[in-house]
């Protein structure tokens, strides 16, 4: 009995950190601003066959409609109600997506905006995605319903009701983030309304949540909400499964609030990951890839089993949030592929791949004045994600997750899952290599000269197909071939002017 209690205690402790993925899948993709009908198709036609574990979807609940004169992407971070009704689709479409994705083993993680409602200057009326009435000035959201009692106006002590000082934890958590009406999460009524919304989604079959603006909520208040959540839907998950939780906390150091305060609730976004990796791969501040030997905790990041990691996210790819200029995105495709490749090959953290749309960037004094532009659309209606004959996406969707190098590194991560980080090699500069047990090996050349060297791969003898320059197809290889000898050693040469100056081989790319 004691033993059983101990076992279930361990199970419970691990619970909210566990992404509830299908066995052998290791990476999620954020399909930013996609419509539910397109995600359902993508799960079936691409994500499941390629081994993606899950999808982070944009907030599904009703939001304010901002016409100024065009609709910004960020209107979805201004809730009006918890009805499933947005530019991405209605509740029927959401249900159909969750069902079809789960049926092919791809999980859905919801971006939950529960810290606040719309901006204080949001006016009143029915300019919302489902037409629900609201009055921001009176704090009136009858479709939930919330009223003046449910907000933190009385608690916030800053002179203007906003957050001006990130050195003051109370201000960060009790005041309005960029003017967004801050919910009073210490109230059981508010906690219950939020939990009802999340339980509605759990009932539909989602596997977990990104908690938006978690830094702006007290960890204990989040805990109280999580304690009200149901177990996952047993149609797809083992009985007793808990929702996966990852909290958006930006902690680059030097502020009042640190990531570790949130570990008890679930995983936390590690923003140092993309900021530092971008700096290294850009070779800024004297950084070199050889310094990545102790990447992870050794670089001052949180424990691996608490971290949700990514190279860029929907904020910092356009100058919102944190991270700054070092962040790599699809706009710097060559360096970006190396960074994502490094992330997916390295054992640190649970990984999230970004999938974006293109917009007209317009830098004025170093700031992109078009950082607000919403998804590809016709008069506000989000455009379909069309698929070109060469498998890339049309209609303005970038689909980084379909780039061969990125898609094949997701497969690499699945193949090396659970294997140790080993056989590190570097040239003291920007040529590095490492393996994962006897299942995979990767080599980078980010120097301004060629790499030509023989390395211990740890892999069994044989000829392997490099999954960066090509694919293994019908037993052949459309890219570079690497032959590993009986001693596990192989010769690599990578020109510094190669289209993609890195090579990756793994157990399933063996010919
Ligand atoms: C929009 C308008 C606003 C308007 C508001 C209300 O843009 O002008 O006042 O509506 O009408 C998104 C957009 C916002 C948008 C909002 C609502 O990004 O522009 O406001 O929807 O429509 C902070 C939060 C973090 C947040 C991030 C954007 O901590 O939670 O700001 N991210 C999430 C979402 C995001 C969303 C929201 C939250 C709101 O991912 O998409 O906003 O739901 C410091 C702090 C960070 C802080 C940043 C930015 O970072 O540490 O916590 O993030 O400042 O304010 C260095 C430092 C680093 C610092 C950084 C930037 O890198 O090391 O610590 O500089 O200064």
UniProtKB/TrEMBL annotation:
Domain Alpha-amylase C-terminal, chain residue ranges per copy: 422-510
Cofactor or coenzyme needed: Ca(2+); chloride
One matching Pfam family: Alpha-amylase
Domain Glycosyl hydrolase family 13 catalytic: 26-413
Signal peptide stretch: 1-15
Keyword annotations from UniProtKB, A to Z: Calcium, Carbohydrate metabolism, Chloride, Disulfide bond, Glycosidase, Hydrolase, Metal-binding, Pyrrolidone carboxylic acid, Signal
Catalytic activity reported: Endohydrolysis of (1->4)-alpha-D-glucosidic linkages in polysaccharides containing three or more (1->4)-alpha-linked D-glucose units
GO BP of this protein: carbohydrate metabolic process
Keyword Cell membrane among record annotations: no
EC numbers for this chain: 3.2.1.1
Residues passing through the membrane, by range: none
Top EC class for this record: hydrolase
GO molecular function, one term: alpha-amylase activity
Assigned protein family: Belongs to the glycosyl hydrolase 13 family.
UniProt-recorded name of the protein: Alpha-amylase
Source organism superkingdom: Eukaryota
